[in-house]
Automatic annotation (TrEMBL):
UniProt source species: Tepidibacillus decaturensis
InterPro entries membership: Thymidylate_synthase_ThyX, Thymidylate_synthase_ThyX_sf
Alphabetical GO biological process terms: dTMP biosynthetic process
Pfam families (UniProt xref): Thy1
Name the UniProt record assigns to this protein: FAD-dependent thymidylate synthase
Amino acid sequence: MAIDFTYQGVEYKTLVELAKALPLNSAKLVQWTEDADRFAAEAGSLCYESEPRLGIVNHCRDSGHNTVLEHNIFSFVKKVPIFVARQDMRARHATFDERSLRYVRLNNGGFEYYIPPELKKPGREQELDQWIYHHEKAFELYGHYTDEEIMENERARAILPLGIATMYTDSRNAVGWRHHAIKRLCLRAQDEIRLLYRSITDQLVEKAPRLFGDLDMPCYMKQGCGEVKTCGLIELDPKTRRAVAYEKKLQREHTKVELK
């Protein structure tokens, strides 16, 4: 397994230091199966006693032969608002270890919170001030309750808003990452978790392009959109439920193959 605790050119000694250095609503790939594409090909070739060609990975990926992909593990450290984490942790077949606000006291710069982009627009200064005041006041009360030993951390945390940052390690096999990424890359997903998974997907593709190179919004994949209520932002083919632009791309690629 490969391990990387660097971020923006800085190498951190521990996962804790790295997690604290991340900006809010971001994820960093920290451990992964080296040469995952090749290992998946080797696992697939063993099934058929064939030569381990990388094309086997594409076949297994597209046909749903998921066990070939599951041998490869990828781990991220994430720093996101609690409301994003609670959506993220609905994923199945994943292993999470989150900073515990039962045992860890928020101090020394540990109190970070999310500010929605709408409040950063001109003319929203009053609403922005209210948002900041609400969060700062909550932390002030949290500090008072814990500093004065009025109550333990585990109870005082109840006053903290859902927009504060939490940090956790998230490990899954390749199939687990694929399944959840497809769900969260859809335009119907909340913007914050959709953007988080766009970053995660980019990092996965860099390490294993065969395992993850096809990942996109569902309507831009062979399976098509599975939502009863669509986003309404992308024109879909009524038969395949794929994006019309994606269908045209497939047709062009098919034409090129025929001309060769």
